[in-house]
Amino acid sequence: MKTFLEANRKRKILAVDDEIINLEIIKEILSRSYEVDFAFNGKEALEILSNPESDYSLVMLDLMMPVMDGFEVIRRMKADERLRRFPIIVMTSDKNAEVKSLRMGAADFITKPYDIPEVVQARCQVLIELNEDRSIIRSTERDPLTGLYSKEYFFVYIRRFLPKLADSMDALVLNIDRFSLVNELFGREEGDRILKKAAELIASTILQSHGIACRTDGDIFYVYCERRDDYEACVQKIQNALNQDGPARTLRLRGGVYEPVPGDELPEAWFDRAKAACDNIRDRFNHFVGRYSRELYERVIYEETLIADIDEAVEQRQLTVYYQPKYDIRGDKPVLTSAEALVRWIHPELGFISPGDFIPIFESKGLIRKIDRFVWREAAAQIRRIKDTFHVDLPISVNVSRINIYDPELEDVFLGIIREFDLKPHELILEITESAYSNDENRLAEVVADLRNKGFFISMDDFGAGYSSLGMLTSMPIDILKLDMSFIRNMQVDEKSLMLVELVLDIARFLGVPVVAEGVEEERQYLLLKEMGCQIIQGYYFSPPLPAEKFDRLIQGSTESEDGTES
Ligand code: C2E
Ligand code: CA
Ligand code: CA
After folding, report:
1. Cβ contacts of 428 within 8 Å, gap of 6 or more
2. C-beta 540 within 6 A of ligand 1
3. Which ligand has the minimum distance to the alpha carbon of residue 324?
4. Structural domain tally of the chain?
5. Which of the listed residues 371, 487, 518 should we mutate to test ligand 1's pocket, taking the one with most ligand atoms within 8 A of CB?
6. Could you tell me the distance, in angstroms and rounded to a whole number, from the CA of residue 506 to the centre of ligand 2?
7. Average pLDDT for residues 209-229, to the nearest whole number?
8. Which pLDDT value is given to residue 163?
9. 18, 133: one domain
10. Residues 161 and 34 in one domain
């Protein structure tokens, strides 16, 4: 069906007759308005029509033919899902045959010898328009820039004409990354040229067999095409071709595929899913094409809900901060020394959402700043409250998502918070996760050095969860090391983990950095860590993260017991 891509094409008619003279007459009558192809018997006609690329708007059928007569052709076409869509005009001189053929499913007839040409033309035209639906034909079919379908027409077309092929067709979405930059940097004209070229390449690379495409939202292409297993290669090929000429040589094209399943009859949803699959590989630069999965769809819906709700969540204080105490275990009795601020979201509809679920979403969308800053301020306020209420200085650590590392205001934000609550910088400990270290070491080293110069304490979070961490310890000064939870979990089951914990404790001792072990759930783990010389412990063994009031009570309890007064 690639000819559908040509704007204003002539519609095609297949004329079937064993007498060449009749075919010539038909062609004579119709060729001004239509492209007329011939078949010389019924069998040949069926072969031509069965080709998936066949895009005839009308079949004109003689009834009396050798090999396979017209009645048999009608019978077979009506019995075949794929062939049923072609309207048939029967050409005959036999009055009885007219009625019989109409009963069998022919749409109309013309009598031989032929009526005056105008009548034949008119009957063909009416039938074609009826079949294609006038309103559709006259709507704005095409995207004027690329000649592809408009989005509206694309969906109408899929819905109306192509579902019969659905079991072998895929929904494919193609997106040119950051295309708006091309317009900005090289001008609209160049942008248009690239879009046009992309459309041509899509037609020649992917639509070869059959299928249709449209352009939407500027730089996004929707393609409904025959299923294939080389989408990666196709998209890569188109990308390479796009980068062959012109000033923008580093365009990235990415795709997403959804395979519609039987009973799944909303083409718009197919393309939403293909688009979700396409967006899913935005950060995976070695992928050209993502595939949709059910989980992906549910996740997309979930993520969109959370993102839409976050502002309200902050305003309405659905976000709250819990505090998980950390204990110094060096002495005879564990002593409360600090706490980690951990955010919680109590969503009015979704209920309790764990930060493990929503933090990564906001991180990946670059929206974590709002949450982090909220938590930092809350934590600072809490430190202040503890000072004022209990007259103790209890540092609290906050998590600093790696994206903040690129925030030029980061230092000012922290300094502002410290000033606002009249704290000393080291009272707000900054936990930076180890994966931030591996991303852009130089940038991170700068930021860490600056913050330390200002007096903040830096804690390396989740140490040992990633790679290359040992080397970094020596190159980047930090104040506290937080051992990843997985070590503690595996310490008793496998010897290697235990040895690694010992090794880390040795290195930390050598560097003069205290180690926090988190995720300590059992007494045995606590005792083992204490024996190996670990200084600080955080975990369910002592306490889960607590809401502020409960945390206050814990502090009250610990200050009273220090005073010798029981609570
Ligand atoms: P994390 O920084 O490694 O925080 C420690 C996590 O371990 C917390 O999970 C805590 O509740 C949990 N935990 C503490 N003790 C135990 C234990 O004994 N056993 C087990 N199994 N788990 C324990 P949580 O609160 O669900 O937070 C998950 C992650 O979400 C955090 O991991 C942190 O990376 C992130 N996160 C939490 N709050 C914030 C925040 O305010 N900002 C940012 N950027 N990230 C946050
Ligand atoms: Ca942490
Ligand atoms: Ca951690």
Report:
1. 376, 379, 380, 383, 395, 396, 397, 398, 414, 417, 418, 456
2. yes
3. 1
4. 3
5. 518
6. 22
7. 89
8. 60
9. yes
10. no
Largest CA distance in the chain: 118
CB 89 within 8 A of CB 114: no
Same domain, 269 and 133: no
User: Residue 405 CA: which ligand is closest?
Assistant: 1
Residue 232 pLDDT: 95
What are the backbone angles phi and psi of residue 467, rounded to the nearest 5°?
-115, 175
**Lowest-confidence segment of 305-309, 366-370, 453-457 by average pLDDT:** 366-370
Range in 127-136, 218-227, 345-354, 476-485 with the lowest mean pLDDT: 127-136
* pLDDT value, residue 497: 86
Q: Let me know: does 109 contact 102? Beta carbons within 8 Å.
A: yes
Q: Record the tokens describing residue 415, joined without a space.
A: 């300094």
Nearest protein CA to atom 38 of ligand 1, as residue: 342
CATH number, domain at 196? 3.30.70.270
Distance CA 473, CA 460 (A): 9
Indicate if the pLDDT at residue 450 is higher than 80.
yes
Q: Is the distance from the beta carbon of residue 372 to the nearest atom of ligand 1 less than 6 Å?
A: yes
Residue 418, pLDDT above cutoff 90: yes
222 lies in some domain: yes
Last-in-domain residue among 87, 107, 140: 140
Output the domain CATH number for residue 349: 3.20.20.450
Entry pTM: 0.61
Q: Are residues 322 and 423 in the same domain?
A: yes
Q: Is 320 close to ligand 1, i.e. is its CB under 6 Å away?
A: no
Among candidate residues 97, 114, 140, the one where a domain is terminated: 140
- Asked, for residue 565, whether it belongs to a domain, the answer is no
Which residue range(s) make up the domain with 119?
4-140
Q: Of the residues 399, 462, 523, which should be mutated to test ligand 1's pocket, given the most ligand atoms within 8 Å of the CB?
A: 399
- Which one-letter DSSP state was computed for residue 6? S
- Residue 352 Cα to ligand 1 midpoint, Å, equals 14
Residue 253 lies in a domain: yes
**Ligand 1 touching residue 429 (CB < 6 A):** no
Residue pair 92/109 in contact by the 8 Å Cβ criterion: yes
Within this chain, do residues 362 and 398 fall inside the same structural domain, yes or no? yes
Q: Which ligand is nearest to the CA of 432?
A: 2
Of 338, 358, 359, 375, best ligand 1 pocket probe by most atoms within 8 Å of the beta carbon: 359
Look at residue 531 in the predicted model and tell me its pLDDT. 95
**334 and 482, same domain (yes or no):** yes
| CA 341 to centroid of ligand 2, rounded, Å | 8
Residue type, 192: D
**What Cα–Cα distance (Å) separates residue 247 from each residue in 243, 251, 253, 357, 421?**
9, 10, 16, 42, 53
Q: Determine contact, residues 113/94, Cβ cutoff 8 Å.
A: no
540 in the same domain as 394? yes
Residue 304 lies in a domain: no
Whether the CB of 98 sits within 6 Å of ligand 1: no
The answer, yes or no, to whether any atom of ligand 1 lies below 6 A from the CB of 466, is no
Cβ 352 under 6 angstroms from ligand 1: no
Query: Which amino acid residue places its CA nearest to atom 37 of ligand 1?
Result: 342
